[in-house]
Each structure stands twice: as structure tokens, then as C-alpha cells.
Design brief:
- By secondary structure, this protein is mostly helical.
- Helix content is 69%, strand content 0%.
Length: 282
């Protein structure tokens, strides 16, 4: 008798079946099953369990044949699912529970708000020339009991803004800075009355001063940067000059404290420039 062909063996997964055998069968892998469901729904949408489910005519026929109660049950199911997903969205207690209540958290928020208002004031002043808005933001900072490091920079920038929109207030702020902080970097800048002037473009002068810096002539760098900063007030080159001056202080160990002050000056007064960001990192 001819030998009967042996039946093709089929691996039926059991508790002892190797992982490779189990995972090779599509419906034994929950991940691939779920992925397949999502792909089907994205491609075909919600399809009822009917023959010829790909045909629109069959779907329409099935929908029309549903009783009102069945339709309502389907709609209720979808509505409940949506409400469950949005249950927290309309619950005031969900948001109230997230409000900060600890004193240190509230203090941090006030600190962040002051710094944000300070930065907005600088942006309105430097980028958009919206001096009234800049003054409002900077005044808000001074009225909100800011941390010490923000007081002088805010006063100085208010002084610069008032020079444009209110000369009387500008003189008042200048007097406050000089009388209350006579040894500060800001008072020195305000009182700088250099007679000599640099010739050439701001960029050319910056390059010349930078060459002095590379040679190690830091005292000359400090003198010339002061002169250039006073001469080019309002020009974009000033932030580069301020950072170069700070670096010159840093190279002179005897005035290390001035180096830290100069870096802080650049970081706070030019926070959106490349030099201001470098100063902050330093």
C-alpha cells in the first residue's frame, strides 16, 4: 500500500511553548492585535458586523434596520466614553487641587513673575521701541518687592526709557541711582562724561578693542570699552562691548568682584542677546 502522506504538523501553543512560537502567531500577541485594531479603525472607521462590510450600501441598510432603542444605546455608549475622557476637564476641583498653597511655592511664583515682567520690559524697550509699555512693566517690578539683583537693572532701564518719554522722571531716576548706589556699575555708566570720541564704525572699534584684549592689554580694553559704551548707547554693539569688558575684568584677578558684577550687568540688561546668554552661562 502506498504510504499516506503525513499530516502537516501545527504547533498549538501551550504553557510550555517557547516564546518565539507563541509570538509568531498574530492573535497570540496582544500588542500586534491592538495595533491591527487601530489600523483597521483608522482605515475603515466603525463598521458593523455584517456581510460585505466593505460596501457602503450594506452599511446604510444595516443602520436603517436598527430600532430606535438600538441607535440610542450606541449613541449613549459613545457619549459616555466621551464624558469619561473629559470628566476632569470640567471639574473645578481638579484645577483647584493644583493651585500652589505652600509659602515657598507662592514666593517662587512671585519671583518668576517679577523676572518675566523685567524681561518683557527689556523686550518692549529694545526690540519694539514700545517705551510706555516698557515703563509699565518695569514699574510693576519695582512695586512688587523684587529680589535685590533686579532692583538696580530695573531702575537703570527705567531711567533709559524715561529719557525718551518723560525727561523729568528720567532725572529723578538718575538721581536715585547715583544717590542710593553711588559705587554701582550703573551709576558709573550714567555719570560717564567722556570727552574723547572714537572714530570709525562701532564694528571697527569693537574689533580694535578685541585685538587689545587678545594681546593682554586689559587696562586699555577697560578704558576703551567704557568710552565706546558711552558713545554707542542704544546700538546693538553695546552688548558685545559690555561682555568684552566683563571678560577683561575676569582676566584681572585683582578685580574678580567687578567681573561678577559686570557679568550680571550684561545678563540682566541684554537677556535676549547672544552676549547676555553667554554672560548668564558664565
Amino acid at each position: 500500500m502506498p504510504q499516506t502522506a503525513s499530516k502537516k504538523e501545527v504547533n498549538i501553543p501551550t504553557t510550555n511553548t517557547a516564546n518565539a512560537t507563541v509570538s509568531s502567531f498574530y492573535f497570540y500577541n496582544p500588542t500586534t492585535v491592538q495595533q491591527g485594531k487601530l489600523e483597521f479603525k483608522n482605515k475603515w472607521g466603525d463598521r458593523p458586523l455584517v456581510e460585505n462590510w466593505r460596501l457602503s450600501s450594506e452599511i446604510d441598510s444595516f443602520t436603517k434596520s436598527k430600532t430606535p432603542n438600538e441607535k440610542d444605546a450606541t449613541n449613549d455608549s459613545k457619549s459616555n466614553e466621551k464624558n469619561t475622557n473629559n470628566s476632569f476637564r470640567y471639574d473645578p476641583e481638579f484645577y483647584i487641587a493644583q493651585l500652589p498653597t505652600k509659602p515657598e511655592e507662592i514666593a517662587t511664583l512671585k519671583k518668576d513673575k517679577n523676572f518675566a515682567n523685567y524681561q518683557l520690559g527689556i523686550i518692549y524697550k529694545e526690540k519694539f521701541k514700545e517705551y510706555k509699555r516698557a515703563a509699565t512693566k518695569l514699574e510693576n517690578v519695582l512695586e512688587s518687592n523684587p529680589e535685590e539683583r533686579l532692583v538696580l537693572p530695573t531702575m537703570y532701564n527705567l531711567y533709559k526709557v524715561y529719557q525718551v518719554i518723560n525727561a523729568y522722571k528720567g532725572k529723578e531716576m538718575k538721581s536715585k541711582i547715583i544717590s542710593q548706589y553711588p559705587d554701582s556699575r550703573y551709576a558709573q555708566v550714567i555719570q560717564s562724561n567722556a570727552v574723547d570720541e572714537l572714530t570709525g564704525t562701532p564694528e571697527d572699534n569693537y574689533e580694535a578693542i578685541y585685538r587689545d584684549y587678545e594681546k593682554g592689554d586689559f587696562r586699555n580694553v577697560l578704558t576703551k570699552t567704557d568710552l565706546a559704551i558711552s558713545q554707542y548707547t542704544g546700538d546693538e554693539i553695546v552688548s558685545k562691548l559690555e561682555l568684552l569688558k566683563a571678560r577683561a575684568y575676569g582676566q584681572t584677578l585683582r578685580i574678580w568682584v567687578e567681573y561678577k558684577k559686570a557679568l550680571n550687568f550684561v545678563a540682566l540688561n541684554y537677556p535676549n542677546s547672544a552676549e547676555g546668554k553667554q554672560a548668564k552661562n558664565f
